[in-house]
Amino acid sequence: MKVCERTECSFHKWYPLFKRVTIKSVIEEIPPEVLSYLKEDGIVLPVEANSNPRIPDDIESDYTVDWMDGNDDDEEDESPSFPEFSAKLKEAIGILGGEVFIKTNWSAPTDSSWITSCKTLKCKRLEDIYLLLNSSDRLMENFLSSLKASKDEQEQSHCIILKKWMDIHPGTEFRCFVKDNVLLAITQRDCSDFYQHISEEKFEIIQDITDFFNNNIKNKFSLPNFTFDVVRQKKNKVVLLDFGVFNKKFSKSYLFTWDELLEISSAMKEGDKAEFRYIGSETGIQPSANAFESMCGLPLDVKYMTNDFSLINLIQDEITQQNQEDDV
Q1: Has residue 77 got a pLDDT over 90?
Q2: Distances from the Cα of 230 to the Cα of 35, 41, 57, 82, 217, angstroms
Q3: Which alpha helices (H) appear in the chain, and where do they start and end?
């Protein structure tokens, strides 16, 4: 993988070119002082995001037990304050309709949805945003990776992206793989469930995503090899969600293996359609990844790490059956 590939897949790099076919978003650069705050241990909300009213000192002293007796020298941590940055976030929430989804350059805090009041990634207040930013190991990994990143990546600013909230049915999300500007493969992203409509509309799904790629992405994205995620809301209505690196270190291949993707690329001829994989029956369906996360507060990647072997084996027969049906 070339140094610049991951940089080119950063949201703020591609959004200006593809904003017409993706979700309306606002991009804010994270100031150095906020980035330092996010790298610290613990969750201490900034003053602007603290919704709890302050209790007057004279009342608080009457009803508070001094659990730190004998440690009078210890001072209570003061809440930080980032008025300018917080004001920009609050303004963005308003611009985007009052409900937003957040992510950073490459990742969303999918591992910390359990910490919000609604147990989702929907943010309505500053408090929601700061809670997700502070509690996500995925985002922390992005922030800390800059310390050992290439010069190209180090010079790139960390950003927070606020997207207008859109309710997305998990059965409408697909990951697509492109090599040498050729659409090789499409896979269902939610590998934990069977969706009847995918089986019924598989040919229409392939056609809609292929048309979307040819009309809006092919030879327009800055890299020849990449992945991209879409949501197919309905027939002839596809929306771009994100771009990713064509590399197993950074991108999940879901119902494919990376070796299979390379084999498909080698065998593909001009005019061939992308190979499409999906869960075709309820046999061997895995527990919901979202339920796993909300109950345990663990990253989705951890869940898939523990189930990759069983998942691949359970669906292999189904994939073979699908290919046989398509050949009929």
Answers
A1: no
A2: 30, 35, 53, 35, 12
A3: 3-8, 11-18, 32-39, 57-63, 83-95, 126-135, 137-145, 151-154, 196-200, 202-212, 258-267, 289-296, 300-327
Would residue 274 count as lying in a domain? Answer: yes
Which residue segment(s) compose the domain that 275 sits in? 170-327
Number of C-beta neighbours around residue 285 at 10 A? 15
Answer whether residue 281 is part of any domain: yes
DSSP string, 101-120: EEEESS---GGGGGGSTTSS
Bigger pLDDT: 229 or 65? 229
Mean pLDDT of the chain: 82
Which CB contacts under 8 angstroms, 24+ apart, belong to 302-310?
302/111, 304/191, 304/252, 310/286
Domain count, the chain: 2
Does one domain contain both 38 and 157? Answer: yes
Rounded to whole angstroms, the Cα distance separating 324 from 326 reads 5
- Whole-number Å distance between alpha carbons of 243 and 312: 24
Q: Which residue carries 């593909």 as its tokens? A: 268
Confirm whether 237 is domain-assigned: yes
- Report the pLDDT value the prediction gives residue 296, as an integer from 0 to 100: 41
Q: In angstroms, rounded to a whole number, what is the distance separating the alpha carbons of residues 189 and 186?
A: 9
Report pLDDT digits (tens) over 53-69.
443 444 344 444 443 44
* Most confident region among 1-5, 95-99, 267-271 by mean pLDDT: 95-99
CA 194 to chain centre: 21
User: What average pLDDT does the segment 134-143 reach?
Assistant: 87
Q: pTM to 2 decimals?
A: 0.79
